[in-house]
Amino acid sequence: MEPDAALSTRAVHLGRPPHEPDRPLNEPITMAATYVAGGDLEYGRYRNPTWTAFEEALGGLEGGSCLAYASGLAAVATLLDLVGPGEKVVAPRHTYLGSLAQLGDLEARGRLVAELVDVTDTAAFAAACEDAALVWLETPTNPAMEVADAPAIIAAAHAAGARVVVDNTFATPVLQRPLEWGADIVVHSVTKYVAGHSDLLMGAIVVADPALYDVLKQRRDSYGAIPGAFEAWLALRGLRTLPLRVERAQANAAELARRLGERDDVVEVRYPGFGGMLALVLDSGGRADLVQHSTRLWVYATSLGGLESSLERRRRWKSEPDTIPDGLLRLSVGIEDVDDLWADLAQALDASRG
To answer: Which among 159, 250, 251, 261 has most CB atoms closer than 10 A?
Structure first.
């Protein structure tokens, strides 16, 4: 494949076996814990050909070297483990709840200091980076849908000597590639858009620096937060259609955001202008609850990024920051017909008026 091939072409072709007679078109599932010694594989906790195919594909799309993990939070934990005792991590105040929980737990145990900042205030966020060891970014943020000036924050973090991690779960490499902005690390919940079918748990880290890759690979070997071969095979199969799915979800989300903005019973629509995620704010948590229980097509679920559309009132989780409006519904827009999605959402909004 040509090195300048389009991303949609690379998504289809990266990670495949060589085009040779009698070779399979797709990398098979290698179900093995033990290998005959003397080669590169050695043991099932160190390497698996099915992981390798997935890692080649996602790493190629992000522009770095990839390591697959058992879940997105396993990948998050691996990266937070890079922070030394008492060092500071700066993160958006509206960050994925699982990441916030890990930061809070580590801070409570005296392992690190966490500073949560409004990521839309670039000057304040850059100032907080001055004595940080690690800067964590989400853009858009989950679930507030805020967009950061990532290149400016990355530059400020590097000037202060901090590493930068960007959680690219929402945007995917189809829409943004943070390593091109100078980020050191990209992290994904592969469970979401990359795999795209709501049928597996998996995470991934992508880095540009070979030395950092070696450190992370050694720690994965030691700690064992590895994916299953079947999950890696499913994730790679899902990744093949990632550009198509993102294109359709984004078109649907933009149209739904437009239509929602025309309703006088919607307080606010939060759509960053790209991607398949948006949020709408209603005047009360009670009304948002009614909506999420009244849809027939939209699925009331806490995950996202699948083929199907889902929604959730995020403040139903007691640990969600109180700066998230009580009536905020996070919408993960799927690839269904947009008119069908709108009809179902509109009837649920109408019904919730009482």
So the answer is: 250
CA atoms of 231 and 218, how far apart (whole Å) = 21
Q: Which CATH number does 242-352 carry?
A: 3.90.1150.10
Distances (CA, A) of 55 to 11, 65, 76, 190, 228: 12, 7, 17, 11, 13
SS3 content of the chain, % helix, strand, coil (to 5): 40, 15, 45
In SS3 terms, 110-149 reads as CCEEEEEECCCCHHHHHHHHHHCCEEEEECCCCCCCCCCC
State how beta strands 203-207 and 185-189 pair. Answer: antiparallel
Q: What does CATH list as the number for 7-239?
A: 3.40.640.10
Closest CA to 166 of 148, 140, 189, 185: 185
Spatial distance between the Cα atoms of 261 and 199, rounded to a whole number of angstroms: 33
Per-residue confidence in pLDDT tens, the chain, 354 aa: 777 999 999 999 999 999 999 999 999 999 999 999 999 999 999 999 999 999 999 999 999 999 999 999 999 999 999 999 999 999 999 999 999 999 999 999 999 999 999 999 999 999 999 999 999 999 999 999 999 999 999 999 999 999 999 999 999 999 999 999 999 999 999 999 999 999 999 999 999 999 999 999 999 999 999 999 999 999 999 999 999 999 999 999 999 999 999 999 999 999 999 999 999 999 999 999 999 999 999 999 999 999 999 999 999 998 999 999 999 999 999 999 999 999 999 999 999 997
Helix, coil or strand: residue 309:
coil
Residues known to be catalytic: 45, 96, 167, 192
**What pTM was estimated for this model as a whole?**
0.97
3-state class (DSSP) for residue 90: strand
